[in-house]
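Human: Respectfully, please carefully check these tokens:
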Amino acid sequence: MTEPSDMTELVNAIIQQSLKSQRGITANQVLIDDLGFDSLKLFDLIAQLEDAFDITVSLRDVQKVKTVGDLHVYVHTQFHPASPTAATEG
């Protein structure tokens, strides 16, 4: 499951499951302010994402995630990391 749309849909479904809600999820929603995640719920969400995608999320990375879109990008980059040579080519 490496297609970006599949990842996005699964991330959104996991968020909905974590919230115990079927509310619409959009990329610009802030996890804490808009969706009501507290630190415990956020770490539970991260654990669910780790299990679902078989990835490991560091504490440093968790601190950078603010929005649903940040989660989408983070999960996607775990499967498609930026190529170091692409960044230096010009």
